[in-house]
Amino acid sequence: MTAQKERKKPSFPLILSVLSIVFYCAGFLRVELDLNEQKKRINALESIEETKSRASILDLVTKSKEINPDPHSNKRQRKRRNADTIKNKTEIKNVQATVLKILSELRQHHSLSQSSSCLLGVPGPPGPRGKEGSRGKRGQKGDQGIMGLPGKSGKQGIMGPSGPKGDVGLKGQKGDMGPAGMPGAKGEPGKSISAPAVAVSPKTLTANEGESALFQCSVSGNPKPVLKWSKLNSLSQMSPSVVSGGKLLLKNVAGNDAGKYNCSAVNILGKAHALVQLVVNVHPRVSLLPGPHCAIKGDNYTLPICHVTGYPTPVVSWRKSSGQLPQGRVKYNNSALQILHVQKEDSDVYVCSASNLLGRVEKKTLLVVASLPRFIVKPPVKIVVKLRGTLRINCRASGDPKPVMR
Question: What Å distances lie between residue 222 and 187, 188, 225, 227, 346, CA to CA?
């Protein structure tokens, strides 16, 4: 029964909503009564203003009739009293202007009275909620709050790795000697010790410039010997990348890699070594001054030396660019060319070429033969001329390049 009574009691929100409805209705009735009272006051004011305006208009009309009671009489008396007629017209205009001014003032007074008589009404109900505005700027970071209570302890974690091993304990006392065991089987005989021995392959190797060269050195001995590669007549040591075990690998060989290499082996019983030789074929190279070189006609002239390198030693030859070398007037060894009694036709480009197994190269040099200037017509040593006479002296010369006469 008590539970049913509690269920029948009205809830607090229901009571609050009923009270709000009652208050709202009472406020609405009060607003309606105030509005009716204001309307009555406005109507009373308007009736008072209308009566005042009518009375003032009637007064103005009576005044205007007193000023001009009969317009027909003015017409009768116009001929006799022209001056009075003009005066009456001006007075009528003045009265009309005064009437208009009074009417405008009454209208303004009426509008002012209406505006002053209106009282401020009761505020209306709130309008609908506007759109949500843009989000404001983020405020400054607040002060750090008070530390909360510690949380509940978590589950037990996985067991960590074992700790470091402790120090070794003290050595115990020596125990009693046990009984002798059974004799073991006889072991195999050990290797006999021996001095080192060296074998190389190949003993001689020929490689072209830019290729690779490989030598193999095999050693034997007991204890195992220590192997080492070195180049004869060279202070520089072999690079570890070149030597691998007993192998000697030279990549991209050049002319300065040619020579003899020594493979040595050492142990406690002695030392042994063997030599290999590397031959490198090098492309021919020529160095020659290009010129031009100037020679005097009739002299013996030796062209610049043609410096040649390469292996095998290149074969050097000379030739004339536009024809054969002068017959019977040429002397040359491998690197130098001499022309006897040079002539004008010896001016040309001369080519020095060098060739061997790997190819052929050439270099050029220019020879220019010049002739010294000489007089074709030589002026006399002594000339006699008459006073005020004309003197003409002939002088002609030849040469290559053409001489300049002064």
Answer: 19, 17, 7, 13, 76
Q: What is the reported pLDDT for 130? A: 80
> Residue range 123-129: average pLDDT?
77
Bridge partners (DSSP) listed for residue 318: 352
Strand 247-250 versus strand 243-244 pairing type = antiparallel
Amino acid at site 296:
I
Q: Strand order in 330-332's β-sheet?
A: 301-302, 337-339, 330-332
Is residue 253 within 8 Å of 279, Cβ to Cβ? no
Cβ contacts of residue 313 below 8 Å, gap of 6+? 356
Q: What is the DSSP string of 37-79?
A: HHHHHHHHHHHHHHHHHHHHHHHHHHHHHHHSS-HHHHHHTTT
Distance CA 219, CA 262 (A): 13
Residue-level length of the chain: 406
- Neighbour-count burial of 10, counting CB atoms closer than 10 A to its CB (0-12 exposed, 13-18 middle, 19+ buried): exposed
β-strand pairing of 270-287 with 259-267:
antiparallel
For residue 235, give every residue at least 6 positions away whose Cβ sits within 8 Å of its Cβ, in sequence order, or none.
none
User: Considering only CA atoms, which of 331, 330, 341, 332 is closest in space to residue 299?
Assistant: 341
For residue 221, count CB atoms less than 10 angstroms from its CB and return exposed for 0-12, middle for 13-18, buried for 19 or more. Answer: buried
Q: What are phi and psi of 405, to 5 degrees?
A: -85, 135
Alpha carbon of 133 to those of 40, 136, 138, 173, 325: distances in Å?
Answer: 45, 9, 15, 92, 107
Q: What is the pLDDT of residues 193-216, one digit of tens each?
A: 889 999 999 999 999 999 999 999
CB atoms within 10 A of CB 155: 4
CA atoms within 13 A on the CB side of 125: 6
CB 374 within 8 A of CB 400: no
The pLDDT assigned to 83 comes to 47
Predicted TM-score (pTM) of this structure: 0.45
Given a cut of 90, is residue 90 above it in pLDDT? Answer: no
Whether the Cβ atoms of residue 344 and residue 361 lie closer than 8 Å to each other? no
Task: Give the count of beta carbons closer than 10 Å to the beta carbon of residue 350.
Answer: 23
CA distance 274 to 258: 17
